[in-house]
Predict the structure.
Amino acid sequence: MSYRIMANEAHGSERQQQGWVRLRLPEELGECHTDCLGIAPDFSLLRTHYRPQRDLVEESRKQLERPVLAITLGLTGESQFRGHCGTELSFRSGHTTVSSFLSSHGERHYRHDHSVRQIRLLVGERMLRHYLPDDHGCRKLLDSRSGVRQLAYRPTSPACLAHANALLWQASEPTPDILQTHIHVLSLLAEQLRHLDLSQDRHTPRLRQRDADKLDEARRLLEMHNGHYMGISDLAAAVGLSESKLRSGFRHRFRQSPLRLQLELRMRKAWALLETGRQVAEVAYEVGYEHPSNFSAAFARFYGRAPKSVFGPKR
């Protein structure tokens, strides 16, 4: 039988370092807590770790003055939100769930002895308008008159996962770098907004199947040669597209540029190699960098940490 936590039951709270506040359920329920950090007024970062000792139902009753955009990255495990109005949201490892709400009346469900780790951004209307001057786009995201509304559910992109890992690493440091934390939070937000359809309702020309096939081929080429840099002109020539059509086609079909995808592929391969114990210089050459210092700088920009930190200083 599930244990139920009512919305009016007090959660223990304690202040952590660098402005974090931990909200914790009673210890007898298991390790269940959420750490909260205010990034700016109307903008928060949350880290959740739940591992209940029995099936857990946590009631949610929120009524806000202004709507909020919620972006949740599932890192491990799975949980669900079931709204009283019939809305259901899933939060699953390797997936990102984007929703908005003005009121949140429902239940969060966690399974017995299953570890759930999530990172969540909560962005209020005022802050969102600051980043989205287009009033139509903001209204399209925050139109939540029916309660909780799901806007997207998709696999987490490598770029977002990199920012999430960087945030977790920063949080584990004795003296986290506040600037780096803010950079990765804003990068996560920007990446998600880039994938949401915020345009006016107008016709978008569809790609011809022939061009779509060529774009898919270009992506496969980048994935096959992710250890070597491939210029736009070479990639376009290899698949029989003009450079401009290749760039615009990637933005339309994959929501990113060819260079951005190539960087993600190289950095993912680099991380995997570093985890096996390879030297930084070896990995740099393996993913197409002539100079290890250039690789280290690119890796640090992408992940927010130095390559040698992936598996300790002995590298």
Observations:
- The longest strand covers residues 56-76.
- Residues 3-195 form a domain with the Jelly Rolls fold (CATH 2.60.120.10).
- The first helix runs from residue 125 to 131.
